[in-house]
Design brief:
heterodimer; A: alpha/beta; Rossmann fold; Alpha-Beta Plaits; 6-stranded mixed beta sheet; 4-stranded antiparallel beta sheet; 29% strand; B: 359 residues; mainly alpha; abc type-2 transporter like fold; 4-stranded mixed beta sheet; 65% helix; elongated
């Protein structure tokens, strides 16, 4: 039986006229990596900062590790790890000193060396924060979130701005926490990241959760189709492709064609027959079939791509 | 407590790594003091006096010899025209002409004048030189007339020591350094707010008051270090004597620093960025630097400015430091100085606490 480590009920927060968070409810369970997925401005950061006790909600209930955020924020702060979205840290302090300083704020902390090792920061232990690369600063910022050996870690877009290599390294760290049975609350606008790391995902848009479940569940619920993709300078007219058996949705962007299909073999054979008949078969390139991803789910749910 | 000590050590370390802060805390005040001290502290030991002896008699030689004997004068003899040219070009400030016929006139019992040409624009040196010259001529006069000297003046200075510009300047330099530390040092908090460091601290259990107190305490340490270094150099280079109580001096330095820190936090409490906060600080700092009498005596200021000057905390800090360090004549009592600084400290602290934005 999994315990509830974060419980959010009917959370509302507005800035001036804008409802940043519009009645969110969700739970994070012990041992799981929970992802909040959405485009910039969807309300992810506001939500996570309310849970961390950095902002106060207009209404709704939030509890962390069984404690009410509105009542005992200080006790909660002892036990959670926080990584803020792109804060710059004290520039004139070196890596070890900064971890040591933060460790002194908590009743319980991990040895600085262990955390340095976990985030491969050993070689830059004596480097001043201002001289660290962006990737190193990001890792240091995650290291600070782990220094108090937290019962749950909140990571707000931890891999934004990292190069692919650094991103993969950080994924390994997050997977390591999962292996230790530590819950992680992750916000991201990177679908690949959510798909790879998260046990469960809540998709947010305009302050609302528009879908939630495991990545697999989401894809199965909202996206039973496969995607047939190919490039062609002379694709069949969209109307024609829509009429292929099994085809549910067609998208043509310049030369790139995507046909979503509930009956892939039927759609595929209709497509090939049509192309042979019109003599365009030889112009089709990169014909491929793939399973739907969270990207497709998001596109289907919101009608737009997540980066837009 | 552990968190506070770590914060304090960290703040001190950050200060030692911050070249701008180090410059304004140590290098700038010391350079300022050396520069102003060397420009204004060259207390003259001798004056060059031009002399043209057109008479070339026993009498004129007596005058020339008397002047030459006086340590204060360095006599250069030449023609009348050359002497006059020197004074016009500013080479000498005083030129004495003994016209021909002086000896003859005296022999016949006629009074005769020795002419002194001087530059009236030099208001500091000329009166001194003229009065000494009067005495010299008087002495020669006496030799000639052979009258016995019955009444003499015995000079005895009762002031324990002479106050010169450097004595006035050093306490002012200390007050200025304390002001820099208090006002510019407050930018650190603005930078931390701007870069979301305060927000990051806010996500930990550390109390925000500890973060602020550490920033204040580290600057109190720096203020004492700064004071020691400036005084050490002042004594070494300019032989400035410290007459007052060291503890009282330290007390006023700490009180002044605390007052200016709280003013600093108050004026930047709403500034969003360091760039926005800097001009606000300069707006407060510049008038205080030049009007509060830390570099120029108060009587040099126009009367219309007096109310402004009397409101400035630095006026009182400068006054107190000057009294304690070099025994300058008090403008206000030390109690009043401490009281005004205390009021600034408390009022600005309350305002800063009320107004300061953490995000």
């Amino acid at each position: 039986m999994q315990e509830v480590v974060v419980n959010v009920k009917n959370l509302v927060k507005s800035y001036a006229q804008v409802k940043a968070v519009n009645g969110l409810s969700f739970q994070v369970l012990s041992g799981e990596t929970f992802g909040m997925l959405g485009p910039n401005g969807a309300g992810k950061t506001t939500t996570v900062e309310i849970i961390e006790g950095l902002r106060t909600a207009d209404s709704g209930e939030v509890s962390v590790l069984g404690m009410d955020v509105a009542k005992v924020p200080a006790r909660i702060k002892q036990r959670i790890g926080v990584q803020l979205q792109a804060p710059s840290l004290l520039p004139l302090v070196n890596v070890t000193e900064l971890l040591d300083l933060f460790a002194s704020f908590y009743d319980r902390s991990l040895p600085v060396n262990d955390v340095l090792k976990m985030l491969s920061l050993e070689e830059s232990r004596k480097v001043l924060v201002k001289n660290l690369s962006g990737g190193q600063q990001q890792r240091l910022s995650v290291a600070l979130a782990l220094i108090n050996d937290p019962d749950i870690a909140f990571l707000d877009e931890p891999t934004t701005g990292l190069d692919p290599q650094a991103r993969r390294n950080l994924w390994t760290v997050i997977e390591g926490m999962r292996a230790q049975g530590k819950p992680v609350f992750l916000t991201t606008n990177n679908l690949e990241e959510a798909e790879r790391l998260c046990d469960r995902v809540a998709v947010v848009d305009h302050g609302n959760i528009i879908a939630s479940g495991s990545p697999r569940e989401l894809i199965q619920t909202y996206f039973k189709e496969n995607a047939i993709e190919f490039d062609s300078e002379t694709p069949p007219p969209e109307m024609v492709m829509q009429s292929f058996p099994g085809a549910t949705q067609v998208m043509v962007k310049q030369n790139e064609v995507t046909i979503y299909s509930g009956d892939m073999p039927a759609t595929m054979s209709a497509l090939l027959k049509y192309e042979e008949k019109t003599g365009n078969a030889s112009r089709m390139k990169n014909l491929r079939v793939r399973e739907a991803t969270l990207e497709d789910v998001f596109l289907k749910l919101t009608g737009r791509k997540i980066r837009e | 407590m552990r968190a506070f000590l770590k914060l304090l050590v960290s703040d001190l370390k950050q200060f030692t790594r911050d070249r701008t802060a180090l410059f304004f805390a140590f290098a700038f005040p010391v350079c300022f003091m050396l520069l102003f001290g060397l420009i204004f502290n060259n207390a003259k030991t001798s004056f060059t006096v031009g002399l043209s002896d057109e008479d070339n008699s026993q009498v004129s030689q007596a005058v020339s010899a008397t002047l030459d004997q006086m340590a204060i004068f360095k006599v250069t003899t030449g023609t009348y025209d050359a002497g006059l040219a020197d004074i016009k070009s500013g080479k000498t400030k005083i030129f004495i002409d003994i016209p021909s016929g002086v000896a003859a006139a005296i022999a016949s019992g006629q009074p005769v004048a020795v002419k002194v040409y001087y530059d009236p624009t030099d208001t500091t040196d000329t009166p001194v030189v003229l009065s000494v010259l009067q005495q010299a001529i008087g002495a020669v006069n006496q030799q000639i007339t052979q009258q016995p000297v019955l009444l003499t003046l015995e000079q005895e200075s009762i002031s324990t020591h002479q106050l010169n510009y450097i004595d006035f300047l050093v306490p002012g330099i200390l007050a200025m350094s304390v002001m820099f530390l208090g006002l510019f040092g407050s930018l650190t908090m603005v930078a931390r707010r701007e870069k979301m460091v305060l927000k990051r601290f806010g996500a930990t259990p550390v109390k925000s008051s500890l973060v602020v107190i550490s920033q204040v305490v580290y600057r109190l340490f720096v203020a004492l270090a700064q004071t020691s270094i400036i005084i050490a150099i002042a004594r070494l280079v300019f032989k400035v004597n410290m007459v007052g109580n060291w503890l009282l001096l330290a007390g006023f330095i700490l009180l002044g620093t605390a007052a200016l820190i709280s003013i600093g936090y108050f004026i930047v409490s709403r500034a969003r960025t360091v760039e926005a906060a800097q001009p606000i600080i300069q707006l407060v700092q510049f008038p205080m630097m030049f009007l509060s009498g830390i570099f120029f005596p108060m009587d040099m200021m126009p009367a219309a400015m007096k109310p402004v000057i009397n409101a400035m905390p630095l006026t009182y800090l400068g006054d107190a430091l000057r009294q304690i360090m070099v025994g300058a004549t008090p403008i206000h009592s030390l109690w009043l100085d401490a009281g005004v600084l205390g009021v600034w400290l408390v009022v600005c602290m309350i305002l800063a606490i009320k107004l300061f934005k953490w995000e």
